[in-house]
Amino acid sequence: MINFNYENDFNLDNELVLSEWLSKVILSEGKTEGEINYIFCDDEYLHKLNVEYLDHDTLTDVISFDYTMGNEISGDCFISVERVEDNAKDFKVSFDEELKRVLVHGMLHYCGYKDKSEEDEKAMRDKEDEKLLLFHVKQ
Question: β-strands 62-66, 72-80: how paired?
Fold first, then answer.
């Protein structure tokens, strides 16, 4: 089950469409869907988590806490709406496209993809692009 939660004024207007797409992403990776929580917040909220749990004193767009057991994907994915807005401007894409990329990025971490090395980061970007195409495929 995919849940969307809000720690700020932001609200998705297409939760069902996004959750159906993210479920397709999970299936396309040969995984099963457990409990996945997306929590939308601001920079301050996510920065506190980054410092407290990861010992990183930086702003970030997404932090994924992975509770996956075996093949069943589960986790809490925190997303800073402010970072997504800024990144969309920097990358010259729409807010919606950048948000989808961040949503699927968190999910791909649960599927086992990493992004710490340059090689892993490229593989993650390629996988994000592949999964973004799934969004436009009718069920």
Answer: antiparallel
- The burial class, CB within 10 Å (0-12 / 13-18 / 19+), for 7 is middle
Q: Give the predicted TM-score (pTM) of the model.
A: 0.92
Fold (CATH) for 2-135: Collagenase (Catalytic Domain) (3.40.390)
Amino acid residing at 44: E
**What are the backbone angles phi and psi of residue 88, rounded to the nearest 5°?**
-60, -45
Would the annotation count 47 as a binding residue?
no
pLDDT surpassing 80 at residue 137: no
Is 76 annotated to bind a ligand? Reply is no
So what's the pLDDT on residue 139? 45
Q: How confident is the model over 63-81, as a mean pLDDT?
A: 95
| Cβ pair 79, 106 in contact under 8 A | yes
Is 136 annotated among the ligand-binding residues?
no
C-alpha–C-alpha distance, residues 24 and 52, integer Å:
33
The DSSP element (H or E) to which 26 belongs, if any, is helix 15-28
